[in-house]
Amino acid sequence: MSASVLYDTPGPKAAVRNRIYAAVGALAILALLTVSVVRLSDKGHLAPEMWDIFNYSGIRQNIAEALLATLKAFGLAAIGSLVLGVILAVGRLSDHRPIRWVATTFIELFRSIPLLITIYAIWVGFLTDYSMWALALGLSVYNGCVQAEVLRAGINSVPRGQSEAAYALGMSKTQVMVSVLIPQAVRAMLPTIISQLVVTLKDTSLGFIILYPELLQTARLIASNTQVNGQYPYVSTIAVVGTIYIAMCLLLSGLATWIEKRGRRARKNSGPGDGPGPIQSLGDHGNVQVAAV
Q1: What percent of the chain has pLDDT over 70?
Q2: Model pTM?
Q3: DSSP state, 214?
């Protein structure tokens, strides 16, 4: 019987038992979904009239504007979190102890504070009249701290010989960090970075707490101000807006998968003599010649 790193490979009896558990669990989930659909249908939430509201141009326009507002906040937060992540990651790896302490304290502090509180505090304290910037700044601070840890892990994963060879060429630490370590760290951690951007996109829904007209806030306004057959179309509105969120997240996740496959294919197709490695591109300095690692 072969063993995995995390668990023992199940035997024939355990495999049969696991299949039974999986089947029972699937049937239980299916039963719960069936009960939920039947109850919603009995209360009229799945009636065709509940979905006809999206045929009105005004509601479609509101959703389109909310989608644009969500993408604006996400774009600002994505750029801000990546820039802040690089700065904090470099700060945590600094040789100067005060800089390292400041970066570490900043990261640990804002990773510990709930994101909703950060966004609300920035909005109330500094940007009351600019809800989009308050949301983008709050998302940038929190996700920048997470991206900093991702980048730091990527930098630490680069073989030490890369930096040692660069130092042997007479490069400063800044040059080594910018030209050698960060590019390789970004390439290695790119799927994780984009996965965190997916989290950033979903977190834009927290803008409802500061009345920013993103998708969730707009969906709440649509559902609470529209009556169909004496009921509010919360179910249909949540279904439509949820589908939009899922589609955007799937696009970002698909981008991460595509980039990962492309990078893997490029490394597989490139041989030892196909081109200079990350250190070879630095050139030869004096009698020192560095080969690619």
Answers
A1: 87
A2: 0.76
A3: S
